[in-house]
Amino acid sequence: MLRPLVAVALAAASAVTAVTTPAQAAPDEARNVTTLLRGMSLEQKVGQLFVTYLHGQSPDEAHPGNVRDFGVATPAEVVAKFQPGGVIYFNNSSYDNIDTPRQIAALSNGVQRASDIPLAISVDQEMGIVTRIGAPATQFPGNMALGAGRSAEDAEQAAAITARELRAMGINQNFAPDADVNSNPQNPVIGVRSYSGDPALAAELTAAQVRGYQGHFLSPHAVSATAKHFPGHGDTAEDSHTTLPKVDRTADEWRELDAPPFKAAIDAGIDSIMTAHIRMPKIDPSGEPATLSKPVLDLLREDLGYDGVVITDSLAMAGVRQLHPDAEIPVLALKAGVDQLLMPVKLEEAFTSVLAAVRSGELTEQRIDQSVLRVLRMKFLRGMLNGRQVDLDQVDAALGTPEHLAAARRITDRTITAVRNDAGVLPLRAKPTAALVTGWGETTTRTLATTLGGTAMPTGTAPTQAQITAVVQASANADVVVVLTNALSGQPAQQTLLTRLLATGKPVVAVAVRNPYDVAHTAAPTWLATYSYGAGSMESLARVITGEVSPAGRLPVAVPGPTPYPFGHGMDW
Q: What separation in angstroms does the CA of 387 have from each of 25, 121, 419?
C-alpha cells in the first residue's frame, strides 16, 4: 500500500504552498514524485498510465456496466481493482455519472477513498456544445464565442470560474481547452469547439484559458488543463469518432497553422496535452494515427519542447482502432511517446498488455517510470496529491454564485456578432409584442421566445412542408420573426423555411446558433451569429435584438461561400 508514501508527499506539498514559479517548485516536486515512484510496484506504475470511465452515480452502488466491463460491481471497486491514474465522468446514459453537484462530489470522494494514490478526476467541460455538467454550474458559450468576443481577460475568467466550480465537486482535471484551429468550414467534429480559424487568436485565448484553469501552484480552486487535439484536428472533413481522418499538412504548414495554440499552451505551463486520432501522411507516411505516431509526437516533444503529460483521446474511438487490435494499441501509444491512455476498450486487457510488454522487454521499466513521473508531477503541482475530500455541505453554495452568473452574462453579451443588417431591422425600436421564434432547436427556440415574450414554433433540423406552411401562416400575426439555423448549407428544408418567411414581408432576423458559416448560404438581409445555442447565449441574443446590448462580437473565422465574409467582420449599433 502506498498511503504512507502519499502522506510523505502531502507533508512536502504543504511546505511549498507559497511556491509561485516552476523553478521554485522543481526541487520539492522532484523529491515528492521520486519518493512515490520508488515505493511503487510495476503493477501500480502501470495503473497510473490509465484513465478509465466508470458506470454509475454512487461509488458504492452496483451497476451492471461495471460488472460487464471490469468484472466488479461498483465504481469504487473498479478503482480499487485497477488503481488507475485517473477516471473520467460523463453525463450520458452509457456511463451515467452526473446528476447533481452534491452527487458528483460524493462520487468523487468515494472513488478517491478507493485509490492508494489520489486520482486525477476529469471531465470534458469545454463549455458550449461539449458540456458535461449543466446548471446550476455556471455556463459559458464555448470557445468560438470567446473568439468572437476577442478578450483574453474574458477567456481567462471563464476558465477560472469553471475550474473553481469543478474543484468544488472533486473534479481536478478538465479536458479543455480545445486548441484546434478550425481552418476547414466542413469540419464535422470541431467547428465552434475551436476559438478561431486564425492561429494567433486561437493561441492567445488558449494561453488565457490555461492560466484560468490552472491558477497558481497547489491552488485548491484550480484544475489541470488539457489542450487538445494535438497536432491539430481543425483541418479535417471527417470525424475521428467514426473514421481515421487525413490532414495533408507538411511540417512547415503545421508549424504555421496548427502549432501556435499548442506552443502558447506550453508556454503558459499546460499540465497535459491530448492527442488526435488523425493521420498526417506528409509527416508520417506510415499512415499511423497521431496517437500512435512517433514522428508526429516528436513534433510535440522535440519541436515544441514539451515535457508534460501526453494523454490519448479515447481509445474506444474508431480513428485509433483501424490498424491494430485493441490489446496492441496501448503499447504502441507508449512507444510513440504517450504517457496516459484514455478509456481503452477493455481496461484489463490493456493493462495486461502493457505489463506483458515490460516483462518481455518490448517496453523498459525506465520508459514506464518516465511517464509515471510526469503523471505524478502533474498531480503534485495541481495539489492532487493531498487527496482532499470535498465538503459536501459546501458544494451547492460554490456553484452558480451571483458573481459567477453575472460574469457569465457579461462575457456572453460580448460574443454576439451582427453579420448583416441590410434592412435596418435591428435593433428593434420597441420590444416586440408578438415575436415568433422558429427554426432549429426545441429548447433553444423556446428559451429565446420566453426571453422575448413571444411564441415558439420549433421545426427541427429538417422541417417538413406542413411545418413550414404552419409557421408561415403564424407569421401573419407576428411583429418580428426570428429564425434559428444550424448547418444550413446541408439542410435545404431549413433554407426553404427562411426563404418562405422572407417572402411574407415581415421583419425576419436569421440567427446561426452554431457554426457561423450559415450566413453565407441565403440572402436574408439580417443575420446574427451566436456560436452557441445555450440558454445564456439566447438571453444575450434577445438583449442584442431589442437594443439593450450592442453586438460586440467579430467573426473569429472567415466565412466562405456565395456571400463570403472576412475574419474580423462585424457591426454594432
A: 19, 11, 49
Count CA atoms within 13 Å of residue 346 on its CB side: 10
41 pLDDT higher than 90: yes
Report field, pTM of the whole predicted structure over 0.90: yes
Q: What is the pLDDT of residues 344-376, one digit of tens each?
A: 999 999 999 999 999 999 999 999 999 999 999
Q: 33: pLDDT confidence band, cut at 50, 70 and 90?
A: confident
Would you call 277 a catalytic residue per the annotation? Answer: no
Q: Edge-to-edge, what's the strand order for the sheet holding 341-342? A: 309-311, 272-275, 224-230, 173-174, 120-123, 86-89, 50-53, 341-342
Q: What is the enclosing helix (H) or strand (E) of 421?
A: strand 417-421
Cα–Cα dist 359/41, whole Å? 13
d(CA 267, CA 230): 15
The single residue of 241, 267, 324, 396 carrying the catalytic annotation is: 241
Q: Is 241 a residue of the active site?
A: yes
User: pLDDT tens digits for 420-440?
Assistant: 999 999 999 888 999 999 999
Q: Which of 313, 339, 413, 518 is catalytic?
A: 313
Burial of 74-95, coded b for 16+ CB within 10 Å and e otherwise, reads bbbbbbebbbbbbbbbbbeeeb
Give the contacts of 363 (CB within 8 A, at least 6 positions apart).
Answer: 331, 334, 335, 354, 357
